[in-house]
Amino acid sequence: MLNIVINIVYFMFSLALLFAFIRLIKGPSLPDRVVSLELIASIVVGYVGVHAIDTGVPSLLDVAIVIALTAFLTAIGFARFLERGGPKHD
Predict the structure, then answer these.
(1) What pLDDT shows up at residue 83?
(2) Digits of tens for pLDDT over the chain (90 positions)?
(3) Residue 3 CA: distances (Å) to CA of 8, 46, 55, 84
(4) Within 13 Å, how many C-alpha atoms sit on residue 23's CB side?
(5) Most distant CA atoms of the chain, gap in Å
(6) Signed CA dihedral, 71, 76, 82, 88: sign only
(7) For the chain, first and last CA: distance in Å?
(8) Using an 8 Å Cβ cutoff, are 57 and 66 in contact?
(9) Distances from the Cα of 17 to the Cαs of 20, 64, 66, in angstroms?
């Protein structure tokens, strides 16, 4: 039973990742692309977490934590970049 649920979760994460990539490509502005990159990072963290449960390797949770922290710091960096005016078109 758990195997069926894990396969459904893998499928749902893959579908969400596909939609996030479509949003990344079609995003009309830089903030939309930043949000889609943050969404992709969150989906990857969830995917790694489910894979850790599926395989029984608890050290993968450390990998998920590192990915989440990196994504958080990247989002802060993008927010500061956009707050200071974004790209300069001289």
Answers:
(1) 84
(2) 889 999 999 999 999 999 999 999 998 888 888 899 999 999 999 999 999 999 999 999 999 999 999 999 999 998 888 888 877 775
(3) 9, 17, 11, 48
(4) 16
(5) 60
(6) negative
(7) 60
(8) no
(9) 5, 16, 19
